[in-house]
Amino acid sequence: MTTTTRPRNHNADAAGIPVSEPSAVVTYSPVVLDVPGRPVPLEIKVSMPEPGSDLPVILLSHGHGRANFLSSLNGYGPVANFWAAHGFVVIQPTHLDSTALGLRDRDLPDAPLFWRDRATDMHYILDHLDELEAAVPGLAGRMDRDRIAAAGHSLGAETVTLLLGMQILDPGDPREKDLSDPRIKAGVVIAAPGIGDEHLSPAAAGNYPSLKFIDFSKMTGQALVIAGDKDLNLQFSDRLSYRWDAYTHAPAPKTLLTFLGAEHMFGGISGYDASETSDENPQRVAALRALIWAYLRTQLYPGDTAWADAIAALEGGDDPVAKVESK
Question: Going by fewer Cβ within 10 Å, which terminus of the chain is more open, N or C?
């Protein structure tokens, strides 16, 4: 199904962060790819601006949330639609851990997180961009395959860190540890799981054993790490800095963007009026998606001043919603 959306004035809805003029957004879903060995086909949603060519690409990985459809290609509309309106092709797969698929409780390898399959979903999409283009009306020849980024939230952020070089060093798992992909030129890591130190909860270690073995030492890819200074979930860790370990423990170059007062959903990024949002704040959502847009513009187009302009606007405000540091 294809839908066209005429966005409202996103310039006025970017919390003071300067962004480009928006265009209408065309979405198409599902694109269905039959992946050998995958228990179900890979379903994908594609969103793109109505006009334009040589468009940069964002692979967007959903989280592991409990909502029925937000953890699928149907989630994250507040960010996906904004990025598409401002010039990106946004590709959203439904990973195997999606609640919509009902596979978490099945006797399948790597259930319930399917952490490895999430990364290989992204590899498969990048390997089959020709097939994706052919399936989506109006997409053929419009993607700039040299300008591809990945963004993800929560478990989706872990997926992005794997694509950038993070490894899960489980000594009992003989499979290849390196799932990085050089086609990803920049990553956006929103509230990723951190290292499994002594602060990792027994429940998390027992239910999700892969979290015990996260290692950021080889995560060399360029990344914007986003964390909320109120994002503390004792079911995972009693250490507040857990959610920005991808910045602290990974090698440079990295940038940390800390949202003040933000909890795990950053004001509501996973869906419009989503009940799972504990810190409903449209201004925070507007700032986050605009800042990510600016960061990726500068990373994918060296010399573009979007990120510098965004930081100047952020820091020049009377009441900044976030703070930035880099290494």
Answer: N
Cα–Cα nearest to 287, from 299, 276, 295, 277? 295
Contact 88, 55 (CB under 8 A): yes
The single-letter DSSP state of residue 237 is: B
Name the β-bridge partners of 323.
258
Calculate mean pLDDT across residues 31-53: 97
303 has a pLDDT exceeding 70: yes
Report if pTM > 0.90: yes
Average pLDDT, the chain: 95
Distance set, CA 308 to CA 18, 182, 224, 327 (Å) = 10, 25, 14, 15
Distance CA 49, CA 30 (A): 18
Q: How far apart are CA 291 and CA 283, in angstroms?
A: 12
Q: Which residue has the tokens 């199904």?
A: 1
Beta pairing class for 89-93 and 55-61: parallel
If we measure between CA atoms, which residue out of 166, 268, 164, 154 comes closest to residue 208? 154
pLDDT tens track for 241-278: 999 999 999 999 999 999 999 999 999 999 998 889 99
Q: Distance (Å, rounded) from C-alpha 157 to C-alpha 39?
A: 23
Mean local confidence (pLDDT), 37-45: 98
Strand partners, 215: 167
Structure tokens at 10: 């996103």
Helix or strand or coil: residue 292?
helix
What the block records as the tokens of 108 is 């399948």
Tell me how far apart the alpha carbons of residues 98 and 230 are, in angstroms, rounded to a whole number.
Answer: 26
Contacts of 259 (CB under 8 A, 6+ apart): 226, 227, 228, 229, 266, 284, 287, 288, 321, 322
Residue 319 and residue 246 in contact, taking contact as beta carbons nearer than 8 Å: no
CA 13 to chain centre: 21
